[in-house]
Amino acid sequence: MRWIRAAGRGLLIAAVVLTGYVSAGTGAGTDSAGAAQGDGRGPMTLATAGDLTGYLGPLLEGWNRSHPDEKVTLVELPDSADETRAQLTTGLRSGDGRYDILNMDVAWTSEFAAAGWIAPLEAGRFPLGSFLPPVLDTATYDGELYAVPYVTNAGMLYYRKDVLDRAGETPPRTWAELERQARTLAPRHGLGGYAGQFLPYEGLTVNATEAVYSAGGTILGDDGRVTVDSPAARTGLGFLARGVRDGWIPREALTYKEEESRQAFQDGRLLFLRNWPYAYAGASGKDSRVAGKFGAVPLPGPDGPGTSVLGGSNLAVSARARHPESASDLIAYLTSAPVQRKVLTEGALPPVRADLYQDPGLIRRFPYLPALRASVLSAAPRPKSARYEQVSLAVQAVVHDAMAQHQNPGEAVRRLSRELAAVARRG
Ligand code: GLC
């Protein structure tokens, strides 16, 4: 979706040039350290990971037109969750108040709240009751609301409908079916079998966690105990490692993040792809070779439907926000019904408001909405941990070794269990 993104970047640069960069401590209503003073109203910055469909800049322009004294400047950080996190936390650790509102990955809430980087919010100011139920849990820490759900996400299995139809096959509902079709049909059509996001970064944590959850396992218990050493986790990692060993996961997929894997699918190089719903728009676009030839279904698991990890992002107010009142109002605006509709229609991202998933007009335009709703409702959150980054780094490193055939799945699971226990001890 780079074509939309390029246009979005132009707008972003224009916004920054027009409004000027507002750094901490220089705006009205702040003290020299950048903490809020006065009525908490004034200009603000919103930091986000790469806006892959380039919709957010124009959307914020709508707010800016009607709030000339509370304008928001968009700061777009890199596409990958890890790089964005690194840039945000470097600033937050040094007490830099550059970003007032953070569009943060749902996986980070506990860590950012525990570190005191984001401020608790007044629940009554936001339309929490209209959200899909599982998303709210990702925004709380220690029973308090620290963020407001904004975009949700669940993994889906994209498949080449033309290829399956020709072979008289239906999309796989189990790993065994996926494996069989990837092994037999894909080579006949010169396609790679299956890919997801397998480079060591947050995306691999997601893919591996989905494999473990789908097989009935867990990584950490609710009490933070390490629970990964189980036959289910071995089955989950075994599925991914076997794919590479037997060639139905192409080796190249070990370097894929979301965008590389989307490109491979829409260039017509893969039979199956695990990706988020945003990939649907790109694969249906003018420069896609598979437009009109693919479908998307919920992820399969070992013996039936699999379990997706709950993805998405929440909006939080930095503990050092210069204008927290304006920040809360902007968040209420971004989670309002008309803006949430645009998140879907212009951003190709899954909104958090439940009613949009049952709107017949939207279902006609976005036929994957019912499958996505089912996936989000049954999705499971990543482990909640104040040391989430270390948990995720351990998962990525070990799973990548298993997929690269450096360690068998049994050894990999035992090593992961030891490494996670060491992370817990450091806490
Ligand atoms: C998507 C998800 C996010 C996840 C990331 C992993 O952006 O919304 O929750 O952490 O992908 O790459």
Could you explain how this protein is built, in words?
With 427 residues, the chain is of the alpha/beta class. It has 2 domains: 2-153 and 310-377, Periplasmic binding protein-like II (D-Maltodextrin-Binding Protein, domain 2); 155-309 and 382-426, Periplasmic binding protein-like II (D-Maltodextrin-Binding Protein, domain 2), CATH 3.40.190. Helix content is 44%, strand content 12%. It has helices at residues 2-19, 56-66, 81-93, 109-114, 133-137, 161-166, 175-188, 202-214, 231-246, 258-266, 278-283, 324-334, 337-345, 360-365, 369-377, 388-403, 409-426, and strands at 44-48, 72-76, 101-105, 140-141, 144-145, 148-153, 156-160, 192-195, 270-275, 294-298, 311-317. The strands form 3 sheets. A 5-stranded mixed β-sheet has the order 2-1-3-11-6. Helix 8 (202-214) crosses helix 16 (388-403). The longest helix has 18 residues, at 2-19. The model is unreliable at 1-34 (pLDDT under 50). Alpha-D-glucopyranose (GLC) is lined by residues 81, 105-107, 153, 197, 202-203, 206, 258, 276, 311-312. Residues 81, 105-107, 153, 197, 202-203, 206, 258, 276, 311-312 line the site of alpha-D-glucopyranose (GLC). Residues 1-24 form the signal peptide. Belongs to the bacterial solute-binding protein 1 family. InterPro entries: Bact_solute-bd_prot1, SBP. This is Multiple sugar transport system substrate-binding protein.
